[in-house]
Design goal:
Distance between the termini: 19 Å
CATH architecture of the largest domain: Alpha-Beta Complex
Strand content: 5-15%
Largest sheet: 8 strands, mixed
Number of domains: 2
CATH topology of the largest domain: Spore Coat Polysaccharide Biosynthesis Protein SpsA, Chain A
Low-confidence stretches: none
CATH superfamily of the largest domain: Spore Coat Polysaccharide Biosynthesis Protein SpsA, Chain A
CATH class of the largest domain: Alpha Beta
Mean pLDDT: 80
Helix content: 40-55%
Shape: elongated
Strand order of the largest sheet: 7-5-6-4-1-2-3-8
Order of helices and strands: EHEHEHEHEHEHHEHHHE
Number of strands: 8
Radius of gyration: 25 Å
Structural class: alpha/beta
């Protein structure tokens, strides 16, 4: 019996692109179904992440137009990662596999064929990986690749050039549901679950319509969240750097005492100010990084919900 698939698509202010890409997703799910690769009961789930435009209205109309379309809406904007998580958790008990993909049409939906084939070969997780970045600017390519390299060096287990286009079996999702972190970085958390995994390469296209919701500032914030959520290496770097500075300072103290005893010392305002500014800057940066970890601990111990679903286009998912 072919597996039931639910495609999870986070949406935030996508009124321009959603009418276009929704047809692409429907064509893909019908094609896979006609080839008997997936069940005809498979669904396309749009997750409205507190959009301020007509995104949710479009999703509701799509759900009325075809049985394959369903939608959920968060009570407010909670960010891309929480939106993906909400869709995955809602879908996990009502399907065999899920595929998460962005709404903008940049990720090649034809890679889904290979993902489903990989599942039938026994793989529980299939990561969509970009084969090249020819469509990116030089700056975008450099920052994106540096993003993955930095995460790896900082101890986060990530798949190079993989974003959030992936297939996950319900078996993996049921285990992943045991991860209760409030600070979510799916790219680094899912590899921690384990199970048999592989990659599928694809080429990324230009955005079909609308504007990107992931500028450089959000990429940097995501990278920092990923590092501090999955690794304590920055704190270890601070400790090692502190030891080095302390050793140099100790040598400086000995040198100053020797100079003072020999009577060859002279007042030096510039050198004193430079040393104070250097040490002060290092302390502030170190305290800031440690403060980020403390802030994350503060958010974790509150155990606030990671998402709140306010509306659905259905009553019970297993009834449709």
């Amino acid at each position: 019996m072919p597996p039931k698939l639910i495609i999870v698509i986070p949406c935030y202010n996508e009124e321009e692109v959603l009418p276009i890409t929704s047809k692409m997703f429907l064509d893909k799910i019908n094609k896979l179904s006609s080839e008997n690769k997936i069940s005809d009961e498979s669904k396309i789930m749009f997750v409205n992440d507190g959009s301020k435009d007509k995104t949710w209205e479009i999703i509701e109309n799509l759900a009325k137009s075809d049985k394959h379309f369903i939608g959920i809406s968060q009570s407010r904007n909670r960010g891309h990662q929480n939106a993906v998580l909400a869709g995955l958790m809602e879908a996990k008990n009502n399907c065999d596999i899920t595929i998460s993909i962005d709404c903008d049409g940049q990720d090649d939906i034809n890679a889904m064929d290979k993902m489903v084939d990989a599942y039938k070969e026994g793989y529980e997780v299939v990561y969509g990986v970009r084969s090249k970045r020819d469509t990116d600017t030089l700056f975008k390519r450099f920052t994106a690749e540096s993003f993955y390299k930095l995460l790896s060096k900082m101890g986060a287990e990530v798949v190079f050039n993989h974003a959030d286009y992936r297939m996950i079996s319900n078996r993996v999702l049921n285990e992943f549901a045991k991860f209760k972190e409030v600070n979510i970085f799916l790219r680094g958390m899912l590899p921690l679950v384990g199970f048999k995994s592989t990659t599928v390469e694809y080429e990324r296209n230009e955005r079909i319509a609308g504007e990107s919701h992931y500028p450089l500032s959000k990429m940097l914030a995501l990278a920092f969240d990923g590092i501090t959520s999955l690794s304590t290496k920055p704190i270890k770097i601070i400790i090692n750097f502190g030891l080095i500075v302390a050793a140099i300072s100790f040598i400086g103290i000995i040198w100053a005492i020797v100079e003072a005893l020999s009577g060859s010392t002279s007042t030096g305002w510039a050198s004193t100010v430079c040393i104070i500014c250097f040490i002060g800057g290092i302390q502030l940066v170190s305290i800031g990084i440690i403060g980020q970890y403390i802030g994350k601990i503060y958010m974790e111990v509150k155990h606030r919900p990671r998402y709140i679903i306010s509306d659905k286009t259905y009553d019970e998912l297993n009834d449709i």
